[in-house]
Design goal:
By secondary structure, this protein is mainly α. The strands form two sheets. The protein has a two-stranded antiparallel sheet. α7 packs across α8. The mean pLDDT is about 85.
Length: about 200
């Protein structure tokens, strides 16, 4: 804790994101990752998939607000969460704050463009049914695109390349009801909306 306190006591200009990788913090990083994996029930904070493991190499400890842009939030507990490596890689360093350049960490949902793992209820923003992710809100749409959650559907559709394989269609029907036509229209509408979503 002394290392964290020493960092937090520095002037803002002297707080560097590279400090996160300091070997002296290895134990702390491990403990924090273990905490968030357990607190999240072994589910990625972005795709909500259950990874069914606590093995650290299967997880990333993500800084929700990019640590390179905002190193002064390096040790803010609300800025840390456990994610799968694929979601974290897709998210990279994209801006998630509605008011870029903040000096204090926001403590409410309205300050964020994405579904925040500490301030939002995931199900309020994204409907997940198997491999189908359907946005309920603008934050849901942003998160789906930001973390490339459509990658699961792309992989699912490609499985087998067999016209008789209806697993993806069955998941879509489950997500939208039993009417396949309505599901197709809804998916087309969501795809069109996502294509227009500007991540910048």
């Amino acid at each position: 804790m002394a290392l964290v306190n020493a960092f937090n006591a520095k002037p803002r200009a002297d707080k560097l994101s590279s400090y996160w990788s300091d070997e002296a913090l290895a134990g702390l990083r491990g403990r924090v990752k273990t905490f968030y994996i357990a607190a999240q029930g072994e589910r990625c904070c972005y795709c909500a998939r259950h990874l069914a493991t606590t093995f650290h190499r299967s997880w990333d400890l993500d800084h929700i607000v990019d640590r390179a842009k905002y190193p002064w939030f390096l040790f803010t507990p609300e800025n840390l969460a456990a994610s799968c490596p694929e979601c974290n890689l897709a998210k990279t360093n994209k801006e998630v704050l509605k008011n870029p350049g903040r000096k204090t960490y926001p403590n409410h949902t309205d300050a964020f463009r994405l579904v925040h793992p500490h301030f939002d209820n995931y199900e309020d923003h994204i409907h997940k049914d198997g491999f189908v992710y359907v946005p309920k809100t603008d934050k849901g749409k942003f998160t789906i695109v930001l973390c490339d959650l459509l990658r699961f559907a792309v992989r699912y559709i490609d499985w087998g390349k067999n016209a008789s394989d209806r697993r993806f269609e069955d998941d879509v029907d489950a997500a939208f009801g039993s009417d396949g036509t309505a599901a197709g229209v809804a998916v087309d509408k969501v795809a069109a909306e996502l294509a227009r979503l500007d991540l910048e």
